[in-house]
Design a protein that fits this description.
The structure is a homodimer.
Chain A: E1 12-13, E2 23-25, H1 49-53, H2 58-65, E3 71-73, H3 76-85, E4 90-92, H4 94-100, E5 105-110, H5 121-133, E6 138-143, H6 147-159, E7 162-168, H7 169-174, H8 176-184, E8 188-192, H9 198-206, H10 214-227, E9 231-233, H11 240-259, E10 266-270, H12 275-289, E11 296-302, H13 307-310, E12 312-317, E13 326-331, H14 353-360, E14 365-369, H15 371-385, H16 391-410, E15 415-420, H17 428-435, H18 446-453
Parallel strand pairs in A: 5-15, 6-7, 6-9, 7-8, 10-11, 10-15, 11-14
Antiparallel strand pairs in A: 1-4, 2-3, 4-5, 12-13
Chain lengths: ~450, ~450
């Protein structure tokens, strides 16, 4: 690339509001091997629109099944909401480059400049709007660390919709500030498992002292949606519709790079359920599939929860309660119990079917990083780039630094783009452990993996 | 104003990096009545450069005394740091306008898009750079709620300077997350009062169980700076040099408004020590003084700590330890003990000498608002504008809403601009009290005020 592309580049490659995407990009339309269909757990057959629409909003169910329409217009009210916190900046990490002494050019797409503190708001806004438009009274959901719940509470406050969040009990108690942000936005937050649902009461009877789990909270949220007229359940990751909404991240990234004449070589994102990474790489993966350009697309996983790198590509349940549709994905098994690491958003047993298919077809790579090296990267990044990153996002930072240091060895001036999904303001307990030298790594052991994978359902 | 100015206006009136100010504006150069000089507490005479330079950095001492140079160039390394988080957006509060049903046009300058979460970073960056440039090893400071300490820690990490923060003990214990942000940026944080200074040991001997105070933390920080070779003390508000650095807020605001052809009628900011308000209104006050334009400039104070509206314009100590220079300002008395409200940044007994003089000369107004109505305004604002505001900033929101509702009554389409100094992510305990209906107001009683003012020094 011509060197002068980088001369006089602003620190933030901002887009004007008028340059914001007006449609989401549906990568599935361009995929040669489509992701396998979701299966109804009761019938074992592909879930129909009617079945999906009994759980999700109608428009969400339609988007879930749509694998042919490449561009789906973003309704004006959602674009209005996006204007509140978007376009998000694509930042030229010049101070990180200087710290590393690398010839590589590093850029990051920062999705943390909103109160929810992460990219989750992109899909929350869409799902809340579609629920409102359908005339629903409210939505239910689960949240672990709280980013998704906060994002949904914000979106529901904006569109005037009731919001009921089942928050994993251990987080409810340990993250009271997240809970209070949701309260401030008017959401009802219930510690899960709770006495408000049948599944909650059953689990409490069986395990009276349990701190809860994401799987249980999902089951409670789905049950609560079904029990109330005018309510539906919404989910913040994994699903095809979520990938679709998150494509705005990649579309903005590509527009900003194109505007300045920059072509990336490597695009990196952290991967839990896949919502951020799937959105970031979508337009680039599309070009790659259509043979218009080539990029290295890299998923970064925690060594403690390595679904792509060590999981199995198979049909599995999305929740431990086994009431949601089954998905074909890289999975560690729906019974997998991840270690108590601090990147709550990356502790999911499976990976989005879209990303799983891309990985399976060799269109995307994956790597793992360890918790302590992730926090060291986060600290170094914060000190020069200012932003205090979320533990999840810091997985991408670590991988980007490693690639930049490889360039330092080889002298290559590669262009590295990574997704900085959010801020770590509500993760200071984790930073405290790291600052005090008390943090540990929890790489997944072979025996734990084997045990978990042995419980996969025998389908397909 | 022509209506079409507001048609098709973007939500964020962003400036390009190239449009960022290259010099700070020194309002004192245009003031007809200059603020009274700082007095040396030992001699009772105006503090000289040498005396100030024994406490502050040389450049800071120079700026403190400069009341003739209207424009002071911002050194390139500080401008580089500003690029990390500036220009800050001037946001058209269209969703708040809609909620209120007001014909008024409301804009807010948002200074919270950085990890310190407030405007404090503008002066921290400058002071850290000047200390580094002078060849100093490090700086000391005090912090109450933690915004200033966090900002200084960030700036010191960026410029490679040691940072020692004396944090009021009660905050150190109640705000562990703020403390950990500072640790992550490499700062040394000491709970004050501490055993590390003479003044700290003395206070601990006298009041063994004390939770500390800002006044005591200032005294410890000044003593610590004096006790170490190559260290100076830095302060985040009140001082003339701080007002100067913060003028970047007002300069950017004015540039953005000018760019879109918008002329404000009312400019509103919360006022504690005055750093944000002084910076926001500086260029507008300059025009007003020079007779080029007229604006209503409004300081908003908490009813619990009303230095402008109920204090006395007199020389007073800036710290309870009485070791810092005396300033002529509106003050409640350096022995004033503010109620335990949640807007820690507005609990200072005095007001910047620059703002005090403007108020005394009738160039600026002031009003007070109560804590519970401030949090109600904050909640309403958060739900439509997305941003969860700091309690301090929310004082300005409340006053702006009141002005907008007056316009609704009169039908006037006034342009209201207010400063949104920061985010409330570290103030969720306060929001929790509000959400639970447990928050109280603490308006200052006449008897407490009388008692506090009776202890003012008899000078000038």
């Amino acid at each position: 690339m011509a060197k002068d592309v980088f001369d006089g580049l602003p620190y933030k490659l901002f887009l004007e509001e008028a340059e914001m995407p007006k449609a989401w990009y549906n990568l599935r339309a361009d995929m040669k091997n489509k992701p396998a269909p979701l299966l109804n757990p009761a019938t074992g057959k592909p879930a129909t629109f009617e079945e999906l629409a009994s759980v999700f909003c109608d428009e969400g169910a339609r988007q879930e099944l749509d694998e042919t329409t490449p561009w789906i217009a973003i309704p004006q009210p959602i674009r209005d909401f996006y204007r509140v916190y978007r376009p998000s900046p694509l930042i030229h990490a010049e101070f990180l480059e200087k710290l590393l002494g690398t010839p590589a050019k590093i850029f990051y797409k920062f999705e943390g400049s909103n109160t929810s503190g992460s990219h989750k708001l992109n899909s929350a806004a869409a799902q809340a709007y579609f629920a409102k438009q359908q005339g629903l009274k409210g939505v239910t959901t689960e949240t672990g660390a709280g980013q998704w719940g906060t994002a949904l509470a914000m979106a529901c406050a904006f569109f005037g919709l009731d919001c009921q969040v089942y928050m994993v009990k251990v987080s409810y108690e340990q993250k009271p500030f997240r809970r209070e942000v949701m309260h401030t936005y008017g959401a009802k937050v219930t510690a899960s498992p709770s006495e408000t649902t049948e599944v909650g009461r059953k689990i409490l009877a069986e395990f009276p002292g349990t701190g809860g789990s994401l799987g249980c909270a999902i089951s409670e949220a789905v049950e609560a949606a079904r029990a109330q007229d005018g309510y539906r359940y919404v989910l913040g990751s994994v699903l095809n519709q979520v990938m679709l909404h998150q494509s705005i991240i990649g579309l903005e990234t590509k527009s900003a790079l194109d505007k300045y004449g920059i072509k990336p070589d490597i695009i990196i994102g952290c991967a839990g359920g896949g919502s951020n990474l799937g959105g970031l790489i979508a337009p680039f993966a599309g070009e790659k599939i259509r043979g218009e350009a080539d990029y290295r697309l890299v998923a970064v996983e925690p060594a403690s929860c390595p679904s792509l790198t060590r999981g199995k590509f198979a049909y599995d349940y999305c929740d431990t309660g086994k009431i949601c549709p089954l998905a074909k994905m890289y999975t560690l098994g729906s019974g997998f119990m991840p270690a108590a690491t601090h990147a709550g958003g990356l502790r999911y047993h499976g990976m989005s079917p879209v990303l799983s298919q891309l990985y399976h077809d060799g269109l995307m790579e994956a790597c793992t990083v360890k918790q302590t090296e992730v926090f060291a990267a986060a600290r170094d990044f914060a000190r020069v780039e200012g932003i205090l990153p979320a533990p999840e996002s810091s997985h991408a930072i670590k991988a980007a630094i490693d690639e930049a240091l490889k360039c330092k060895e080889t002298g290559e001036e590669k262009v590295i783009v990574f997704g900085l999904t959010g801020t770590g303001y509500f993760d200071m307990k984790a930073y405290e452990r790291f600052n005090k030298g008390e943090m540990e790594d929890h790489p997944l052991s072979d025996s734990d993996l084997e045990k978990s994978l042995s419980m996969l359902p025998q389908i397909g």
